[in-house]
Amino acid sequence: MAGRFAPRPTLPHSLKGVGGAPMPVRGGDVVVPAGVPRPTAAAAGRVRVLVPDGPLDLGLMLGPLRRGPGDPTFRAMPDGSVWRASRTPVGPGTLRVSVRGGEVRGEAWGPGAEWLLEQLPDLLGASDDPSVFVPRHRIVALARHRRPGLRLTRTGLVLESLIPSILEQKVTTDEAYRAWRLLVRKFGEPAPGPVPGRMCVMPTPRTWALIPSWEWHRAGVDNKRASTILRAVRVAARLEEAVGMEARAAQARLEVVPGVGPWTSAETVQRSHGAADAVTVGDLHLPGIVGWALAGDRDADDAVMLELLEPYAGQRHRAARFVLLSGKVPPRRAPRMPRGDIGRL
């Protein structure tokens, strides 16, 4: 954990997971002492508690993992906790993360529970070092001052970020969110644990590959994006291996898949790797927002955006995040991108 989080001391007991199976105590695990009533086996999850070394904002960190308000893999609750349903390398799992009294508590269920808890520090930005970031513009400095809890999450999972990023290619966010919601609900599986509402784990690569063409059509996904996803899931194992690579090398591997370009690969490694420098190029809105905020240029293109972000080399994605958090966007002067629905054709 490189000093970013300190594990809470562990009591000398074993911890029971889903189904009552014993789990060896690991650093940072919290065990219910003897004499204290335990939850039922169906409700009890494996638990890990961490102490962050500075401000931490769950909404800022984990918000980019949410694909719209109806995302079946993500829930943000009124008490500030966040629920995620993931397909880990060892199976489906559900993770609940909450902050209380200066501690972060992670509780997980399902075959992937232990994997999710092992990855919890990285999910909470333990491998990220925001202290190296030096603001070069007043608007960026103000945004950083107002949002000190921003750290870049690292999920350690490629496909769960790649597939929704492909769905977001060249369409409105509402269309992409709808497609993700419909496909995951119909072809995924129920998330393990006492989840709030209807949560699902995304389909396996094989299930994605077997989705009939008419189901893609009903979800509003055109043949180009569907074909890109099908090509990606056929080499899912090779793509997941990219987690162990440096971010740029991971992007290069993703872009070997026809239909995956710099925009999609950047959007993926920002989440899977916590890539601080993976700035999104080819976006419809980001160049204009960055150009307007940093130079008053609402017509900035990718080249201008990259020039403006050059002082943040190595941290360009973080700088763009702060620009977006500043709320300074150019006034709208053109109609929104037209929305299409091929599912109704």
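The record above closes out task 2.4. Task 2.5 opens with a second protein, given below.
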Amino acid sequence: MKSVWMGLVLGVCASAFPDEDYRTFTGTDGRGIKAKIVKCDLRSGKVTVERENRRKITVPVDVFSFADQAYIKDWLALQNFLSNSKLRVSVDKRKGKAGETSETKRAKPPCFYEIQLDNKSGAVFDGIWVEYCMYMNTEGFKGAPDKLTVEAEKSDVFKLPVQGKHLEMTKEVKLFRYYTAQTDHSFDSSGYPDSSTSYNKTFEDNMEGIRVRIYLKTPTGNTFMREICDPASVEDKYAWKAPYARSSASGKKRNNRKY
């Protein structure tokens, strides 16, 4: 599977974790220090912070207040979420089998996408979901206007365990070429009436691409998002459309696979 990354990440609430600003951390003894997080390893229970004088210190996470401990856990979740090596997201375009066709409506292979998340971070992602917009352009010929159709959907919220994978399959979009029939009347060499039918293409459906957003909501209520576009030009050409949540009665849940 290929990975397609646009701009890497957008953070819905990423302002909670400014890159350069120092904040006041409060210890369990009530004393505060101004610092920013440099590194955190919850398995060892240690966090490395940098103070305003650039001095780095490594201390147990539990020396800080409960509010700061929650902040540290959110910070770590964000670092894992943003990292392509820790949360791999791949988008693959697939084609199905063309269905029924006619002289005036000729079927092309339908199109859908596979979106796979692969957790390599060593931590569980709890409260994650996928949203996407697929853009189909119906091209008009001989002066006919183009028409854009957007298919937008939202997955259920799910948990992604350590070394876990989740495969989200989009809906399948049917594509066609449209023709008008034109009958020409003439006479053959013997003078008898003759006719022939020609077909002129009026419209053609083309899948332009997909825009995928992955969301993570942390236990403290912060929500983060990263966006992937395939191809990259989709970001500038097409606007995002808020998707509908998938209905459990629609039968589409069978498209979602966890490993």
